[in-house]
Each structure stands twice: as C-alpha cells, then as structure tokens.
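Per reviewer request, we include the raw input and output of the structure prediction for the construct analysed in the revised manuscript.
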Amino acid sequence: MGASYRGGVLTRAVRPTDGRSRASLEDGDVALRGVGRVFTTGRGRRAKPIEALAGLTLRVHPGEVVAVVGPSGCGKTTLLELVCGLQAPDAGAVAAAPAVLMPQRDLLLPWMDALDNAGLARRVSGASREQARAAARPLFAAFGLGGFEDQRPAALSGGMRQRVAFLRTLLAGKPVLCLDEPFGALDALTRAEMQAWLAGALATEPRTTLLVTHDVEEALLLADRVAVLSPRPGRVVAELEVPAPRPRRATDPALVALREQAMEALWAG
C-alpha cells in the first residue's frame, strides 16, 4: 500500500484488508474494525508507549457524511490518517476506498494563483497545467470563487482560501474525503458561513466524507451521523443519527436534543 502527500492533500492506493472486493471499496466504503494505534514517546529507557486508539470500530457508507467528535488527544486525526494510509494500525483492520485528506491548514502555494492551487492535485496525478486549470475553472463560480481565479492566496480571505483548498481536495478525484478541522482556524462568523457553504458543496458534489471537528454543533449541522470518541485511547462510545432535513439550524429542537445526547456521551467518556 503506497501513500503520497503532495500539493496539500494526501492520497493513497488502497488494497482491501478484510476480504471485500476492490469494486465495493471504490463505491466509497470506509470500514475500521477493532483498530488500535500505539505511539512511542522518548528514547531508550525513557521510551513510553502512548495508546491513541483502542478497539475502534466505525463504518461509513458510500455517500454518507460522518462527523467524529471527541476530547483533545483522543485520536481523531490519527483516525483520518489511518483511513488515508498515512499511518498503519497496530491492531485491527482498516479498509477504505481511495481517500484524500484535507488538513486544517489550507497549504496553498503562495506563488500560484487560486486556479493553479485548485488544480494542483490534478497536476501531481499527471495532468498538464492547462488540463488542470480547465478542470478547476468551471467549479469556481459554483463554489463562490468566481472572479478570483487569478488571485494569489495572500489576496484571499481565510474563508476563500479554505474554499480553494476544498476544491483542490475534490479535484483529486477520490471517492472518500477526510476533512480535519477544516474551519478550526477561522473566526466565528466566517466559520458559520463556511459551515453553510460546505453543506451546499457536499450536496452539489457528493462524496463519502469523514469530518473531524471539536465542535458538536458543527457536527450536527453537517453530518448524517455523529461518532463520539472517548478520551485516549479513543474508541467509539456513541453514534447519533441526525435525521433533521437540510438546511439545518442550530436552534432546531431535534438538533438541540441531539447536542445534549452528544455532550452526555462526551462527559461519560
């Protein structure tokens, strides 16, 4: 299994590990079964094992948006990196269709304009600059970036930079998106705007999506299902279906009730 991290996104070639066919994985399946991950800190006599995940089991169905919430240090980012192939589990099995990771930082290249940054994933896959720009250009207007194709990252707002980064992630062409706190660095107002925008973007360009966030409200606004992790070592302690129709408002009674359930699961750990 090989992985590469280029152009601000992580992609990998995946081999099934649990006996399912490659065809089923390409539909957008993600399956983690009994997954454990242990890191070692320090050296020599000071070496100490840190168990990040233990017995974690989670299934994401094709086209589903699943948010993962949990306390700091519970292995949320590790989970995404396992799905994307940046790490390997120490126990259990991970099977996933080809996946791409969008990290919290946008990682746009400052010397490239927005259109070239958006098309970068296509270029590292072998497309010419002209082909990559042609693939990205029609999506700029739909993603609220019309007229900014020739602007460099320094001229874009934080929200617009994240849109370019998300567009780059989509153009990688993978059926599974792993989004790691995509709005964590934004101010509250911009974050609210981007949450609404992402909901619309995923409706326009559906993908199987794993969204890591520390914000329970954000998870409920965006996801079909919310997985709550325990403190380290992380394991799934609750899964909450979110049946509320879209677009959603945080004040919807159904979401308020689900938020209370999620918080109770977090506190119980």
